[in-house]
Amino acid sequence: MIQVLYFAWLREKIGTSAEKFSLPPHITTVGELVDWLAARGPGHAAAFADRKLVRCAVNQELAGPGAHLAGAEEIAFFPPVTGG
Question: What is the pTM of this model?
Answer without folding.
Answer: 0.93
